[in-house]
Each structure stands twice: as structure tokens, then as C-alpha cells.
Recover the amino acids of this structure.
């Protein structure tokens, strides 16, 4: 199981490369890998570039082991994917939802229907599913697989997602916060090379996935990383959590749209005013487009929002001292000005030692981060609790 786990977290590795992290001799690793290949658990996937001798064979989890299902539920979006054990994406579908208005029964019924449709498209069957990973936008009791007092979706409190999906699949179901899954996806992409970093999702809300010592840190009750409710202005607007000045209420997607609408209606931005008149409402992407066109009001809005997010992140950076801050979510579509404002605020407000080697950038996996993380959760946890038997 240690070899299979290492092969999963180090896609594209050779026998020799797997031996090092496991502490095995080259001969022992070779023998173990040979046995796993014979059992149909690992397979060779082509040779690597020669380093001066015989080219090494690339190893991966055997595609015949089964399939993974990944479900990424956001506040306003639903993405479902079918993946191979090595997280090769076979099929994916995304659509708009609103978990604030639609209860768990409606959303999960749609997710279940999409899972069946995508499996059929891949010519897969329910009994081939090894594990299912589900991401949800709220605090999660990881052991129970349930949301706990989610502020944006109160109807989901203590709802058993596992029980809902149990009738269709024998495979284990693992549920986690959506930003934790983004962090897990980036950890898999990095092959666990970075042990301490954070992923911040900025969309309808603001949340943070924390990777500490090479593992996702969930906290005592599953609410670690709920940074959207850090106050950046005690006299600011009231947040849906009941407090004032939360960064989520002042700098997330809805706040950016609100500021843009006010600027358009006040005649401060002809570009935003034209977009508002044409469609009747604005989106954060409109602010990004206006900013790229040189609109002064749009630039001011993005800089203000980025400054507030950076102010919050400076406190996190000083406390946790991560090597990287990766920004994801819908905010990545607004362009480089927001990222520049976040960086400026973080570096200005953080301690010099905390930022000496800090990198702040958009998350490389982008919109795929959630489903990749859902697949990583499904495979890694299935290996941990059940092995590889579907």
C-alpha cells in the first residue's frame, strides 16, 4: 500500500524514484513493483528520457483498477468528473446552480444524474467506481462527511451526502470543504514537493485551504481556513455571519459587483454603465474587462478589493509563514491588477522574514482545481481505508 500511495502522489515516477521517499533499497523497490505489476495494480506507461543509461520505465496506478468520481459543488456552480486512478480526466460537465436557494436534495440529485450520464459516456459502470470525492462550500466534519452550520447554505447542515449516494454506489464517499480540495489538487500537482502553502478561493465567498507539513490541515472541528470572516474594517458593512467588516462582505465577488454597479449608476464608468444597460446586471468579469480597457473606476474597485484581501492575507502569512499563496476561484478571471494589489498589500503588511521567499500567484490548476482535488481525495482516502478493491 505504501508503494501504491507513493505511485499515486508521484505520477510519472520510475522504480528508482519511488525507492527514495519510501526508504527502500533499489532491489526491494524493484521486487515490490514487479509484484504489483503482476497483480494488475501498477502498470508501465512508457519510457522516460535517458539519463545516460537504459531509459527508466514510467509507473502509474493501473487504469484497470476502476474509476473515480469527483463532485465540486460551489455556491453558484456544480462540476462533476470521471477520472482514472492516476487522475487522468475522462469526462467532465459544469453548470450553474445556487446552493443558497436549492436544497441538498435538488443539488445532489442533479449531481447523481450527471455522475450516471458521465459514467455511461465513458462506458463505465457503477460497480467499477473505486471512490467518490465531494467538495462543498462550507465547514465539514471530515469523519462524518457532513457540513456543520454552513453560513451560505443552512439547509445543508448535518445532511448526510454519503447516505444520499450510498444506494447507487458501493464505493466510499469522502466529503470535504471545496477549498481544501483545491489545496489537495495543487498538492497532488506538486507531487507533495511544497509542504507548507495555502490556496485561497475568492468567489461568492472567501475561503482558504491550508497545507501543513504535506497534508491538508482541517482543524479541530473542520473549520480551519474560514478566513472570509476575518474583519478588515470594524465599521464596515454587516456580513451574513452577523459581524461587521468581514473581508468576504467587502472584497468577494458580490462586493466587487456591488461597487461596480454603484460606479455605473453614479456615472463614474461609461464602460460599466454600458454593460449594465445592455444586460441589466454586472458580473465580476465585467469589472475585469473594463479594467483591461483602462477604465479608472474598474481599476479603483479591483485595487481596493485586492488591498483588503491582501490585508487579511498578511495576518495569515505572519501567523502561518507559507511558502506560497495560490489564489483561485472566479476572481482569477478579472485579470492581473487584482493580483498585483493583493501582492502589494501582503508584502507591505507582512513581516520581512515571512515574505523573504513568499510567492503570491494564481493557482496553476485554475478551474480544474476542484475536480482534481476531488479525485485526489477519492483515490488517496480509498487507498487509506479500503485498498484498491472496487
Amino acid at each position: 500500500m505504501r508503494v501504491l500511495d507513493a505511485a499515486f502522489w508521484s505520477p510519472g515516477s520510475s522504480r528508482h524514484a519511488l525507492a527514495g521517499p519510501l526508504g527502500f533499497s533499489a532491489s526491494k523497490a524493484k521486487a515490490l513493483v514487479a509484484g504489483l505489476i503482476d497483480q494488475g495494480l501498477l502498470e508501465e506507461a512508457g519510457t522516460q528520457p535517458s539519463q545516460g543509461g537504459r531509459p527508466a520505465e514510467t509507473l502509474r496506478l493501473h487504469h484497470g483498477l476502476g474509476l473515480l468520481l469527483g463532485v465540486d459543488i460551489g455556491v453558484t456552480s456544480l462540476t462533476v468528473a470521471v477520472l482514472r486512478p492516476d487522475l487522468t480526466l475522462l469526462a467532465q460537465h459544469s453548470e450553474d446552480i445556487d446552493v443558497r436557494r436549492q436544497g441538498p436534495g435538488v443539488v445532489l440529485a442533479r449531481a447523481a444524474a450527471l455522475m450516471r450520464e458521465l459514467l455511461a459516456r465513458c462506458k463505465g459502470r457503477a460497480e467499477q467506481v473505486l471512490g467518490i470525492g465531494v467538495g462543498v462550500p462550507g465547514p465539514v466534519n471530515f469523519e462524518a462527511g457532513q457540513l456543520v452550520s454552513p453560513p451560505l447554505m443552512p439547509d445543508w447542515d448535518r445532511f448526510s451526502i454519503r447516505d444520499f449516494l450510498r444506494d447507487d454506489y458501493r464505493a466510499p464517499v469522502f466529503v470535504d470543504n471545496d477549498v481544501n480540495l483545491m489545496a489537495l489538487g495543487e498538492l497532488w500537482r506538486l507531487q507533495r514537493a511544497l509542504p507548507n502553502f495555502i490556496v485561497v478561493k475568492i468567489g461568492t465567498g472567501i475561503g482558504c485551504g491550508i497545507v501543513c507539513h504535506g497534508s491538508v490541515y482541517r482543524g479541530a472541528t473542520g473549520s480551519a481556513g474560514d478566513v472570509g470572516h476575518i474583519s478588515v474594517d470594524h465599521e464596515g458593512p454587516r456580513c451574513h455571519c452577523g459581524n461587521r467588516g468581514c473581508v468576504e462582505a467587502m472584497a468577494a465577488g458580490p462586493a466587487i459587483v456591488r461597487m461596480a454597479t454603484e460606479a455605473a449608476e453614479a456615472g463614474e464608468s461609461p464602460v460599466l454603465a454600458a454593460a449594465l444597460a445592455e444586460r441589466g446586471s454586472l458580473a465580476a468579469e465585467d469589472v475585469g474587462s473594463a479594467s483591461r480597457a483602462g477604465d479608472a473606476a474598474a481599476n479603483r474597485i479591483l485595487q481596493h478589493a485586492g488591498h483588503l484581501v491582501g490585508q487579511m492575507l498578511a495576518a495569515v502569512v505572519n501567523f502561518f509563514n507559507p511558502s506560497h499563496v495560490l489564489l483561485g476561484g472566479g476572481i482569477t478571471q478579472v485579470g492581473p491588477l487584482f493580483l498585483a494589489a493583493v501582492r502589494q498589500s501582503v508584502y507591505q503588511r507582512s513581516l520581512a522574514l515571512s515574505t523573504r521567499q513568499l510567492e503570491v500567484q494564481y493557482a496553476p490548476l485554475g478551474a480544474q482545481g476542484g475536480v482534481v482535488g476531488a479525485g485526489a481525495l477519492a483515490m488517496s482516502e480509498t487507498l487509506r481505508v479500503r485498498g484498491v478493491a472496487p
Notes: The CA atoms of residues 325 and 360 lie 5 Å apart. Residues 296-320 form the longest helix (25 residues). The mean pLDDT is 93. The chain is about 40% helix and 20% strand.
